[in-house]
Design a protein that fits this description.
The structure is a single chain. This protein is mainly alpha-helical. The protein has one domain. 47% of the residues lie in helices and 4% in strands. It is built from six helices and two strands. The protein has a two-stranded antiparallel ribbon with strand order 1-2. Helix 1 runs antiparallel to helix 6 and helix 2 packs across helix 3. It is globular and about 55 Å long. The termini are far apart.
Length: 156
C-alpha cells in the first residue's frame, strides 16, 4: 500500500461514515465503495453513468431513480439497471463488506488514485469503478514495458 487513500485504515475509517445507502456521500471515493457492492464487474450502464456524472453524481441519480439516466442509456435500459441494483441497496451488507475489507487489510483504488492501472481505461464503460487491493498495489499500475517476463522453452 502506498499509505494514502488506498490504505486499509482509510477504508476502516469510512466504514462507520458510510452507514446507510441514503446518506449523502462525501466524495466519489465513498460512492465508489457503494458502487463496488451494487454492480457486477463490467456493468455498462453504471460505467456510462459514472463517466457522465462521476461516481457520486451517478449514485445520487440512481438512488433517486432520476430520469436523466434514461436519457443517457435509454429508458428501458436504465429502468432494468435500477431494478437489478435495487435489491443490493442494503446498509448492513455495505457495512459488512467494508468492515471485512478493513479486517483483511484491503485498501481501495479508484481512477483518481496515482496507482490506478491506466490500461483499465481501455475498457471504457466496462471499466471497474474501484479495485479492492491488498499488499503493494504499485504493480497494478506498471506499464507493459515494465513487465518482466521469463520465457521457458521446453523440448519435448
Amino acid at each position: 500500500m502506498n499509505g494514502t487513500s488506498t490504505d486499509a485504515r482509510a477504508v476502516r475509517a469510512r466504514a462507520d461514515a458510510l452507514g446507510l445507502p441514503d446518506d449523502e456521500f462525501r466524495d466519489d471515493r465513498d460512492a465508489a465503495i457503494v458502487w463496488s457492492t451494487l454492480v457486477e464487474p463490467g456493468d455498462r450502464v453504471a460505467g456510462a453513468a459514472i463517466a457522465q456524472w462521476g461516481a457520486r453524481g451517478a449514485l445520487d441519480r440512481a438512488r433517486r431513480g432520476d430520469a436523466e439516466g434514461g436519457r443517457l442509456v435509454g429508458d428501458a435500459v436504465w429502468s432494468a439497471a435500477l431494478r437489478r441494483w435495487g435489491p443490493r441497496w442494503d446498509a448492513a451488507t455495505l457495512r459488512d463488506i467494508v468492515e471485512l475489507a478493513a479486517r483483511a487489510g484491503a485498501g481501495l483504488l479508484t481512477p483518481s488514485d496515482a496507482g490506478w492501472p491506466r490500461s483499465l481505461g481501455d475498457l471504457g464503460a466496462h471499466a471497474p469503478v474501484a479495485l479492492w487491493v491488498r499488499g503493494d498495489a504499485s504493480a497494478l499500475a506498471a506499464e507493459p514495458s515494465d513487465w518482466h517476463v521469463a520465457e521457458l522453452n521446453l523440448a519435448l
